From TrEMBL:
Coiled coil: none annotated. It comes from the Bacteria. This is TetR/AcrR family transcriptional regulator C-terminal domain-containing protein. Residues 29-48 bind DNA. It holds the Pfam family TetR_C_1. It comes from Actinoallomurus vinaceus. Gene3D superfamilies: Homeodomain-like, Tetracycline Repressor, domain 2. Residues 6-66 form the HTH tetR-type domain.
Length: 225
């Protein structure tokens, strides 16, 4: 008989990520998780406190995959690099942004907070005062999480159907009159060709252009007035 590997926190988080990816956050329960591991539910509590602890753990993993750029780079480049890395990390673990957005996960470890610290540091370097830095951080997060929401059907699936854009066009095309809604009808034709990451990067670039324009310190490396 093969020897079963001892249960540990990392093994539990591995199984939790797999189960949540397959069944969503609602399908992630201690009972189902224990069953997937071939153990009794009570044995999980030797390594994790509860479901919230598990969600914090898998969120921390996603944050741990975010790459912080060289602090010597100009602050707009650092904002872009961190935001893009966040988008990619959360795209790989689509249940994580849902857990964060619905306040089911609130990781407070240094690993989880380091990318946010780097992002806020870039905003402070731009000259934004504390309140505005908070507002700009919210704007960056809104682009990241909003783009993920639109591209992953509400964070509930890892593999968004390839023909989803075409089916959306067909749905609207059958129900609207182009003569009455000409602008929306025109926009519909772009949906099938949409690339979520390309769209995200374009939105992020527009946002960063606005941040540079609003920054009290002006554009980096710009001559003093």
């Amino acid at each position: 008989m093969a020897r079963r590997e001892p249960l540990n926190r990392e093994k539990i988080l591995d199984a939790a990520l797999a189960l949540a990816a397959e069944e969503g956050l609602d399908g992630l329960s201690m009972r189902k998780l224990a069953k997937s591991l071939g153990v009794e539910a009570m044995s999980l509590y030797n390594h994790v406190s509860n479901k919230a602890d598990i969600l914090d753990g898998i969120a921390e993993r996603a944050f741990g995959e975010i790459e912080c750029p060289d602090p010597a780079l100009p602050w707009p480049d650092r904002v872009r690099a961190i935001a893009l890395s966040m988008y990619r990390a959360f795209s790989r673990h689509s249940v994580v942004p849902l857990a964060l957005a619905t306040d089911q996960a609130n990781p407070t470890s240094e690993t989880a907070l380091r990318p946010l610290d780097a992002l806020v540091g870039a905003l402070f370097e731009a000259g934004f005062p504390d309140d505005d830095a908070r507002r700009m951080l919210t704007a960056v997060n809104s682009v990241i999480f909003g783009s993920l929401l639109l591209s992953t059907a509400g964070f509930t699936v890892d593999d968004f159907p390839a023909d989803a854009g075409g089916r959306q066009v067909d749905l609207f095309a059958r129900r609207i009159d182009p003569a009455r809604l000409p602008h929306f009808s025109r926009l519909l034709t772009t949906l099938p060709a949409a690339d979520p990451q390309v769209d995200f990067e374009r939105a992020l670039d527009v946002l960063i252009t606005g941040l540079v324009a609003a920054a009290p310190g002006g554009a980096p490396n710009s001559p003093a007035p």
